[in-house]
Amino acid sequence: MNKKTKQRGSLLLIAILVSGVALAVGLGVYNRSYRELLFASFWSQTQTAFASTDAGLECALYWLLHPGAGGAGTAQCFGANIPVWDPLVQTGTFEVATPSGACVNIVIAWDTTLLATTTTARGYNDACGSVSPRRVERGLRVSL
Hints:
alpha+beta, single chain, two-stranded antiparallel ribbon, 6 strands, 2 helices, four-stranded antiparallel β-sheet
């Protein structure tokens, strides 16, 4: 037997091993990149939810502190009419869409034990009434 016949399969074996290692490294890089994209998307959606929460809370606080600013019995948040809070009712709730397409739910309540108004805002990253499994909620509460 000559030397060429004995070494015929070794080159094929080395090529398969190198290809396998390159494939494993490529799949690892793909998996890491995919997870990073999901993580970045989550944080982007979180920022949208928090921004809608903050904007809704600011709007509600403005109308609480300036009840007659829009005229008798009128108030608006992001171009939508909202109910004017009446301290005799002691609780007011409204939901409004923000300009970014997100949604915010506001609850204004008079706390008789603290003699303070508590305003709670819960912002979402998507439209009002959505049931998306990727819906993100962020909330803020202020007592005056």
